[in-house]
Amino acid sequence: MSTAGxxxxxxxxxxxxxxxxxxxxxxxxxxxxxxxxxxxRFNGAAIRQxxxxxxxxxxxDLIDGPRHAxxxxxxxxxxxxxxxxxxxxxxxxxxxxxxxxxDPYLLYATEISDSVTESTGSMPSPGDAAGLIIDGAxxxxxxxxxxxxxxxxxxxxxxxxxxxxxxxxxNLDWSFHLRADKATKNLxxxxxxxxxxxxxxxxxxxxxxxxxxxxxxxxxxxxYRTYLAPAAMQEIIxxxxxxxxxxxxxxxxxxxxxxxxxxxxxxxxxxxxxxDTAGGVSPDFQTExxxxxxxxxxxxxxxxxxxxxSPRSAREYGVGTNGAxxxxxxxxxxMAPGAVPVDDVLSALGTGLYVGNLWYLNFSDRGAxxxxxxxxxxxxxxxxxxxxxxxxxxxxxxxxxxxFGDHLEGLTDRTDxxxxxxxxxxxxxxxxxxxxxxxGEMTFTL
Length: 446
Fold this sequence. Notes:
The chain is of the alpha+beta class and about 450 residues long. The chain is about 25% helix and about 35% strand.
């Protein structure tokens, strides 16, 4: 298997070679994404499938003045195979570019800013990890996927800039299945494996599984005191990230946080949300070669702060870019913790709903930042700080201005690390560090 370091060298060599064939005023931008990942799929607490994926994709943007064309190739990391592929692609891009209109918002880095960031992480070997997971199941029906290894990105251009980012992570996305639709849902992810932390996750999952064997209760529609676990918080944050923090959505008044702009609305002063590139596992540069700062504060003291600005928005609105992706959504979300002790969240909740996960979210009123969605796994009725029974599926419909605003009672004093478990086309590098939230009232409609 190719190492991340050898891929980095190969990217440099490939782009240097490709740049030697440019003509006239052409500029070449190249962005590489790849991984060396081990995957293990579990069912019935047994290994059902295991394997390793090594893949590398190199995208090109061939620019001449205000016109450009884009395409990509998969790399075999063998010049005899890859160079003909790249030659054919560049010839095709020249033909496409000749017919393309001028792009008024084209912007790419012209000042060279090289960088190398490599994070090795610490985790068991795939075999040892599988053994720990099976032992942790202790005969229960564990279903899930474990993925671990290196993900890496690289940027290179014909102007001489070189950037490299590599991180080593693990991600266990699993459930304990009881019967029919009764199951827990849990995540354990990060860069440094901890037997103690994994054991705590397993213990909590076992406790949930025992409660699921009790007779579930149905709740009438209405407002309930609620604790939102970090995994449930992720779903809400994802909705806020859908246009909430980008410059273009603010300027076009399509942001779900519009009331913060037009009505001076705000979240609770304790809310601080950042794009925490320095603390995440996504690259600190982007496809046009611009560097990302270590932190961009998006919400501060409950109010709008800086926006994520892609190069295209920077050109369109005449401002500087902070290296945001074209979609201007955060890739490394961090939300500041509060003062509610994690170990005492059930006592702090007292009587109400413990919501471990939310699903199938969508805006019911985008302009009001009102979202609807479903509970599914790990939703329990709590009385006197003790779990009483599982709760059948509920639909909520509420606005973030309540959940993170006037109904918010506190955030937990520790955050959970959540890595996006998506593997469509490759392991993603989106990450979250989120606390849980104690909400005085959350509205459920079904």
